[in-house]
## 1
Amino acid sequence: MLTLDEILEELSKQTGKSKEELMERIEAKQEELSGLVSLEGAAHLVARDLGIDLLKKSERTLQLKDIKTDMKRVNLKAKVIGVTPIREFAKKDGTQGKVRNLVISDGTGQARIPLWDKQTEIADEINIGDVLELKNVSTRQSTFGNMDIILYKTSIMRKIEEDLPVQPLSVNRISIKDATEGYFEIKGMIVDIFSVNPVFYLCPECKTKLEKDNYICNTHGKVEPEKNMIISGVIDDGTGTMRAVFFRDVAKDVSDLDEKTLESLELEEAIKLIKEHTIGKEFLFKGRIQKNKIFENLELVVNQAREIDILDEANKLIEELEEDGGKEEV
Ligand SMILES: [Zn+2]
């Protein structure tokens, strides 16, 4: 909801009338309605009389760090940092389907724009470095925990000449007790692992999740599934704890395990093995903190996990100190 000031600003900009003049009209409107509406309400009515759609104007262009999954009617500007090649697949009706992705960043966050079938042609005109303006798009979480931008018939995506200097994603360190949604780095330790099947199966064509042991996609029938790894657990940085999710390569990085090993084990054994390989290890985690839909608390979808070898770091520090110290003393 816009404040009275914001409405006056917008009306003045669009009509060229002074704020005083507009305010008089708003007060007159309120009086006309025997004071039954607020000044803001009256301002909206005056706007309507003037043929101005305030709701449309109140859409704001957001930065990726402020865009959450499952948002609708989002406007943003971002730079293309990646364009994937077209991947073709056979659809159930016998026609050929196509998909390719654009990866975008505005320096505050990253997202992927999947383009399907005819939409893929848009990408022929788009190069890395181009700045895109997106209007009226929606967002949702991808199978791997990242953010996807969804284009609808009413969405607008166009190249703009405006330059958008996009630095590599700046990721600030945050402690768990101060955590909010956005992209951050957390230095912490894995302290628990949830008992969730560490391997999940996707249709190689459309990436739909498949039931274990049947591998039947509703669109593509029986398929040889794509196997992916997921580990979820709890991290602790000394200020608090947070849920963390690791997909694919990140899951492999933190556990030194792979799908093949884990698939051959019963769930209980697999989780036991993952725990042995992860609990107590300290990492620098980078990723997106978001509100977990089911549990309503914050979770970190980890994009990168670098193990901190405390002894190694300490040795390096000692070496540096000795070198410096030595030079001065001699
Ligand atoms: Zn499929």
## 2
Amino acid sequence: MRIRAFRTGLLRIPLRTPFKTALRTVDSIEDAVLRFDTDNGLFAYGEAPPTVAITGDSLAGILDALQNTLGPALLGRDVRDISGNCGIVQNALPKNTSAKAAAEIALYDLYAQSRALPLYEALGGGTPRLTTDLTISVNDTAMMIADCEKAIGRGFTALKIKVGKQPEDDIGRLQAIHRAVAGRATLRIDANQGWTADQTIAVLRALDAAGLDFDLIEQPVAADDIKGMQIIKAAKSRIPLMADESAFDLAQVKALHAASAADIINIKLMKSAGLSNAIAIADYCAGQNMECMMGCMLEGGISAAAAVHLAIAKSSVISRIDLDGPSLGCFDPIDGNVRFDDAVISVSDRPGLGIQAPANISWFE
Ligand SMILES: [Mg+2]
């Protein structure tokens, strides 16, 4: 059961509507993909989206790391040695969390296949069904309300509202959206580092004073502004504070916890450099009674599937699911064991990630 070959390619999926946050606008998923083949006929895929504004990883950089460093380092490796293989990935080069995530996704898929188990079973088991929220891009209020209505019509009962522009305008947006959808959907706020601590506290005070319930506020201040996160949490809004861009790896999560600078951690494979560190973060948070969200970037059905399996296996601590990448696409070309059916995500018992013949990938020769 040794890896005998690898290849890289590009997965492209147009989005239903442009994805807009305080940091960027994107209109299609265009992700690096990796395929491993073993000497006993197993094969598996990994995927990584370029998110230069968040991870620093460009498409060219991810492909280069996979093609020239991670792929060659794993040739000849036995897929049953998952911890040894993940160690090779993590130590092969600095940074490059997205490329490492892609490699680990394929490695965990092969590992689970070698045990003839769906990945979530190989990770400890769970109930193979999740409910995800959907992201609503930042736009003018009327358009955001219309997008919320469409999402509710598709069956979503939790929505993640992107804000982080002018705080005064954002308060108006959030109040109007809350009024429009109240009682029909749980609302989460993601400001994507768009505000200062003082601005965030002003927004939270306004929402609290209006008696509006929100499930959480995500990363309102700059990734490195741990002091700001701490000040916001100390202001004791009713709305819990979640760290996203401040929480890439276990060391950062421990520092946030020590500083009392977050209530919830958003785990994403592209930040943690794959499943091995994401598991370590989830296990640490479980020990500290910190809840987690399983999130994703703009991802297709390969990497989002890996996140689904992890979230199922760690459902005691991963209480919230934001795995909407495949639902934001016009179609899902990945035929795996995870079915993304708008809000409902379900998993069949095919081994690994069960990916058969992905369409819309152009392979490099
Ligand atoms: Mg976020």
## 3
Amino acid sequence: MNPGPATGRGVNVSALALTGAGALLVAVLAVLVLSPDQGPPASDPAAAARVIAERFTPHELSEADSYRSWARAIGIASLLVQFGTLAFLAFWRGRPMRRLLERLGRHPLRGALLAGAGISLLLSLAGLPIDLAAWKLGRDFGLVSQALGPRLLDWLLATLIAIIPAAIGALIAMAMWRRLKGKFWIFASILVAAWAVIVTWLWPVVVSPLFNDFERLPDGPERSEVIRLADRAGVEVGEVYEVDASRRSSTLNAYVNGIGSSKRVVIYDNSIRELDSAEFSALVAHELGHVKANDLVRGLAFALLVIPLGVLFVQFASGSALRRNHDDFNGPALIPVLALMVTLTAFVLQVPGNALSRNVEAKADRFALSLTGEPEGLVDLQVGLAKSNLSDVDPPAVWQFLFGTHPSTIDRIAIAEGSRSEG
Ligand SMILES: [Zn+2]
């Protein structure tokens, strides 16, 4: 109610800017500290350009370019819808919204629970057309095998699953905001950090099996190769699973996730069927590189380093927005404002996070080269992956900077070619 000078949890603009800049600086420093030392081989971009020209037809390149242009447009639309919806809820104070907030404010905690669930549901509904556009695009280009019905069922399941943590998160945030006042960020940071650990640890065991069937990879040449490479790399992999990814898409992939006893290598069934043995070895060796370098812990460490200042920024920005709106400082208007600021902050901090991810991925490629000693396997794998996923082999630099979690195809081939020229 009081737009006057900053008091209590009100924050002036310079404190807000300083915290934001500080959070970004910590994230950049964390990337520098946590990025693995790349070591040899140096990359050979000229050789990579030759490989691309030899192995891809102009038609393949233009098909991928067309698919990726559409996919990027859909990605941008998705961001706009998400941020637009959240900004609308955070700042629009037309009569229906004021009435709704007043109603929810009668029981602030229950109000926050409902607001959290409502926002989650609304975001999911607003995103449905975009989800369908992405599905249609994938179908048109032969990347998605899933029919509309199952896809909608997946969307429904994902929507319902998302509501629960959103509602509980909103309830907890509200309770902490009301009780802890200026110390909100300290306890919120601890909770967010705990959540990051839990997700890393429990997601593969609890949530992933809801969407796919995971089966122990049966004895055979593939399993033996995984065990042989893991032995040579000197890493413990836990169990090796095959996942029925082909139910949804033709994507070729594998990953390692979980920590401690939930650690596992998961291989897409497509990869087992479609890769030759050198490609399969390169894929598995790359994943073992992640295990060897403790990359899950690196990712987690990045999160733990950036969370405190990130959450402090969210607290300051949310306080400023509530003040600007003349909202009840302790009412449910907090929830949409908080949702917007959290999403915005996470989006910005993800950019340095992606830089760390690209460094980690490049290192895993270099590890795979040293483990298998077969650059051809990695080159074939990258060419095959790019073709089957219709990847942009050399995406726009800005896009790669903002969203690229892996080095581009051409950069990955350049690493493999570099090891060839080093003999
Ligand atoms: Zn990787």
## 4
Amino acid sequence: MSLRNLFSVASVCILLILPCSAILADSLDIIPDSTINQIADSSIETASIETESESIYPLSPERKEMLARYSAFKNIWRFISFFLGLGIMALFLFSGLSAKIRDWAQVAKKKFFILWLYLVIFMTIDYLLSFPFEFYRSFIIESNYGFMNQTFMEWFSEGLLSLLLSALIIIIPVWLLYYTIEKLKRWWLAFSLGAIPFIVFMVVVTPVFISPLYNDFTSLEDKQLEKEILALAEANGIENSNVFQVNASKQSTKLNAYVTGLFNTKRIVLYDTMIKNFTYEEIKFVMGHEMGHYVMNHLWKGLSLVIIFIMFSFWLTDKTIHKIIHKFKNRLKFEKLADIASLPLIMIYLSLISFLFNPISNGFSRYLEHRADIYGMENTEVSGESAAIAFDKLSVYNLSDPDPHPFIEFWFYGHPSLKKRMEFVRGYQRQ
Ligand SMILES: [Zn+2]
């Protein structure tokens, strides 16, 4: 887990949790990057996946074996990345590096710029330490399983862009955090409430100013499909201009669709990879599902949970962290939480708490996903069989395990297992 991911958990986590909760398939939840990362970039033509895609569905015995290996790897990686993130933060703390960075950052003189300089150095070192693991997980593994549509340089420069954007944006919540810690006794309450406008602002601007830095968002290219989808959207009170297609094939062959944005930037986004490999009926069901998220305001519901999570996490942190700092102060070389050198320790807290919070946040997300599936069945005329094929294709194309171990589903899945979703739509009786 890199710093960006940890921050996603903290307060920029809205960028992570919201789009994920609205995403159709679980496959992308595996790499818990922010939207910034998730919608990453390069420039390979769509044509490269053309030859392969014909043989992918239905599932061949070879691909079934691949699916099993990929799923097993992802399950192990959930734990590796968790402990890796903790390990890197512990290294910052107990080697005294965090305190050293704080000392170096003093050249910036003014408090705000000291925080910022600390953050830039900290994030850069974290990036370098995490790089081999990130490269292995996101480039090597994705290439080996045939998902990667980028060259190394394209993938690498996208990572640098994300680092740069994070360094520019994350200073705001970090400054607010240390400002409230220094000034207020109930800083955890003040910070959680103060973070709301920031989080809302980020969700509003991300689809318009950040995502387009990585991908092109256009109206649907297939005009016949557009006609059918817009008729469906309109029947459910969604305006034409709020449905987009994205050239996600630039980065990966994986299929997906999601709802993002708030107010005027709220939108449904379909991957070009999905449009290419799904029939109209299957796409219509996907649209029905996404419309469910859209119409039932799932983004606001997810956002509320995020605020509660932030508040709870920082309350718990405040109750326990001061004793830890006091106990290890000689080793850590800082004495107060208000010292910016404490940032890696706060990261460890957030990482642990969010890991333990997983069953709640994912349980809530699975509930919303189920509601969206019901909405999709109720508000489209797609047959249960077509909807089930859409889920089956998600499993086969994205190599996602349709039937994970119940514990893995309970702890890590933001969506019900594809097997359950298939059974549900097949057996669904419209009212
Ligand atoms: Zn969904």
